[in-house]
């Protein structure tokens, strides 16, 4: 497989007081439209260009056209394949031979495992001890060696660093990296390409790679569009960061949306959020199974809690769109037993 073109970045001044954000966040290079398009070129013919599905029930209830971007139909079951494949495509053959290590709550692990298999690269993934059976077995099916470590993002990163020190290899970062952000941002390019009339885009916020990339892509192409980040009320890392003017580490995060429970938003994603995101809203856990059931009953889509959070934000009237609206459904990696339990309220 050929390597893609280099992903170029730029460093615009953010419209924020220099005394508030950290120096790293202020000076961080933001992905350019060229970088996003280069990532799309790398993914062409490899990743799925997921469709925009009309959500007629939501459209009728809200009085505006609503479409869903179903990234559970992406290879690996989530948007994460985009960034993982672009990252591995930019590695040298020598680096690939030494293998890759992916710290992940689940979806990034599966994405890196799949990309590694496509490139013929040895892969180790570091997952939490609380990882769902669907996400662990998914990484194993794709040929990854699974190592369990703690329950937080920091636990996984520290164990990944230990593995690299002891065994060699390259860590594939889950979100705090310009190449990863550019890869995830191709989701936003597709939204604008397929529906240039869009005025509002809702995107889940975990560590921030997807929300940063989508916000950048949408705003660079449609500056007047509104981009809304959606995160769990039990893991409000971006909300707290925006209040503080810099990323802050939460003491703990819990909840059903296991893919969005990072204790801190990434420094580089935060810089993109400051530049391109219009607002962030938080969703309570109890709204997630309702959104999942709606998506199953009305749209025939199986979506994990993290992926359903944008629809939950609309259904709970936390966001009131004024025109054509897209909800990014970030993934669908949930096993049958877990789906049954959530929809039954257990």
Describe the structure.
By secondary structure, this protein is α/β, with parallel strands linked by helices. Helix content is 45%, strand content 14%. It has 15 helices and twelve strands. It has helices at residues 23-27, 33-43, 56-62, 80-89, 93-98, 107-119, 133-141, 153-167, 178-194, 209-221, 237-244, 267-276, 287-299, 305-315, 336-343; strands spanning 9-10, 30-31, 53-54, 66-70, 100-103, 123-127, 145-148, 170-171, 200-204, 226-232, 279-283, 325-329. Strands 3-4-12-9-10-11 form a six-stranded mixed beta sheet, with helices on both faces.
The parts where pLDDT drops under 50 for at least 5 residues are 1-26
User: How many structural domains are formed by the residues?
Assistant: 2
> Would you count the extended β strands for me?
12
Basic shape? globular
Rg, Cα atoms, Å: 18 Å
**Neighbour order of strands in the largest sheet:** 3-4-12-9-10-11
Q: Per CATH, which architecture of the largest domain?
A: 3-Layer(aba) Sandwich
Number of helices: 15
Mean pLDDT: 90
- The percent range for helix content is 40-55%
In CATH, the topology of the largest domain is named Rossmann fold
Task: Give the termini distance in whole angstroms.
Answer: 45 Å
Q: Sketch the topology as an H/E string, one letter per element.
A: EHEHEHEHHEHEHEHEHEHEHHEHHEH
CATH class identity of the largest domain: Alpha Beta
For the largest beta-sheet, the strand count, sense and barrel status come to: 6 strands, mixed
Give the structural class: alpha/beta
The percentage of residues in β strands lies in 5-15%
